[in-house]
Amino acid sequence: MLNFELYNPTNLIFGKGQIEKLSTLVPKDAKILLAYGGGSIFKNGIYDQVISNLKGFEIVEFGGIEPNPRFETLMKAVDVIKAEKINFILAVGGGSVIDGVKFISAAVNFDGNPIDILQKRILIKENAMPFGTILTLPATGSEMNSGYVVTIEATQEKLASGGSALFPQFSICDPTVIASLPKRQLENGVVDAYTHVMEQYLTYPTDAFLQDRIAEGILQTLIEVGPGVVENPTDYTLASNFMWSCTMALNGLIQKGVPSDWATHMIGHELTALYGIDHARTLAIIGPSLYKVMFETKKGKLAQYGRRIFNLTGSDDEVAKEAINKTVEFFHTMGMDTKLSQYTNDYDRTADFIVGRFEERGWKGLGEKQLVTLDKVKSIVEMSY
Ligand code: NZQ
Ligand code: ZN
């Protein structure tokens, strides 16, 4: 097992009816920026619950944070915070709203040009504005981690960053909020969380027995509840297990003591930036090709995954190959198209474009051993056409 430090200060409040605790979680002297997305919270009653549990607090609303939140929009919120003398932010939404709020929290007190936080990947370790979240879409784990992904519209770049000062102070996760989610978003949530586990598990063996078993437990739970929850999001057993699996997939725990990959995400972000494809769907396109191209370095873990998750038998080679097929099958069950050509006709130059971008950024080798070099990126993207 590799050495590690585990730091996670987020107070996670999980379960039915927990939004009622909101007023006890927000600091007493808070003047709140209530940040939300395109308005789903008005239709499903979450807005009303929030407002009725914040009586007595001064609130300024900031809506319109879009899916794949944009730097340009978020900077408008920074202006509002400064003008209104806000001292606390409440994010009510999915990964996009929560990620957007993390960037706002970082940018408000940043000494310099906030675009540098993204383009120079500056980690925020102090001076962030405190914030809490109410999660409305289980998927990203953003409610219990310190990372975020923001798109710069002007340059069509989707960039990830974070820092230890960007953990939410609290996150309320009430599984009943998923009742109003469209099926497509539920499917996305399952596949995003599944791939988060794969990024931290499907590397090379480091004798981290417990981390492997926890990771496998999350994968098995997602396979167990995923197909059902997208059909019956009001089933509390399915909803609660789905929501907790998504949080556990990316709250830092399973990544301790093991290497992590993240190349599927880095390549996938480019497909969202270029074509606007939903985040999870980009992972379903890229992941399987990456496992094939990086087969030799991942074979040991692929074989373990195949035996423990899908009960496959045979040689390491056979089991590892079949495990990739089973993964694609699961993505299909979860409503994913797994080829880029199913999303756009304009794909033939995608690999060269992405390789060019990575080159400009100096990203010469991604993945757990930096072996996903630019020629491998090209092969992975071309195999995904
Ligand atoms: O904007 P509103 O009107 O709220 O509608 C949203 C949005 O259209 C809707 N929605 C959310 N909760 C709902 C609901 N509709 C009905 N009922 C509800 N309860 O769903 C749509 C998608 O929301 P979004 O927040 O974009 O989805 P998701 O949670 O999948 O977040 C995706 C973003 O997170 C980033 C992705 O790159 C992407 O930008 N990620 C963040 C990570 C992190 N911080 O750790 C890790 C992930 O790998 C990911 O990269
Ligand atoms: Zn993801």
UniProtKB/TrEMBL annotation:
Annotated keywords: Oxidoreductase
Domain Fe-containing alcohol dehydrogenase-like C-terminal: 189-346
InterPro entries found in the cross-reference section: ADH_Fe/GldA, ADH_Fe_C, ADH_Fe_CS, BDH-like
Source domain of life: Bacteria
Keyword Iron-sulfur: no
Claim: Oxidoreductase is one of the keywords in the record: yes
Protein name: Iron-containing alcohol dehydrogenase
PANTHER family in the cross-refs: ALCOHOL DEHYDROGENASE YQHD
Span of domain Alcohol dehydrogenase iron-type/glycerol dehydrogenase GldA: 9-175
Organism, scientific name: Flavobacterium gyeonganense
